[in-house]
Amino acid sequence: AQSVAQPEDQVNVAEGNPLTVKCTYSVSGNPYLFWYVQYPNRGLQFLLKYITGDNLVKGSYGFEAEFNKSQTSFHLKKPSALVSDSALYFCAVRDPSSGGSYIPTFGRGTSLIVHP
Amino acid sequence: GAVVSQHPSRVICKSGTSVKIECRSLDFQATTMFWYRQFPKQSLMLMATSNEGSKATYEQGVEKDKFLINHASLTLSTLTVTSAHPEDSSFYICSGSRTGQEPQHFGDGTRLSIL
Q1: Residue from B51, B104, B105, B111 to probe the interface with A (highest A Cβ count within 10 Å)
Q2: Would the pLDDT of A89 be above 80?
């Protein structure tokens, strides 16, 4: 079984400040983890993924995420937020030990609002 | 990059009409395509998974006779909402993935409004 939680419905941050969007997961084995961003009336855009290797993953638009196995977390971070980063962010997890299915589970989403 | 084109982007139609939504992978072969439904301020709800040339696998609670999915080629999947009613109004999003590869690549979604 696989599950993912995004504990915050909304995150507010001032432009120029660092931002963190939280994600925790639960899988039976080693997880595949993903972050996506969704702008209004658009589909999801892939930001980054963790499959194996370095725990710090760098992605698009200056975002990065750190895989923490002991805390079962994969928080999304950016050193300096932009107003244009305001969007809905989804964390997703897949348990590769689940067999041939490539269906990840998505979190509920976190709305990031960056204030000028 | 991998591009998925979804068409139309918006549909407004009368109750009882059937609506077809197309999802095309433009620069890769999408062995598997996914159809999601998204309610306002909510996460994605997976409706069904389709593999090219075979019948779609529907999630529990999704009526297969209501939401017809066809994945006839490696680059095209269609979702037909049959005899649509106002409660079917929603944002529908498709995605595709290559064989054994991740992540999924998403279309821009279709806003369906049934009057």
Answers
A1: B104
A2: yes
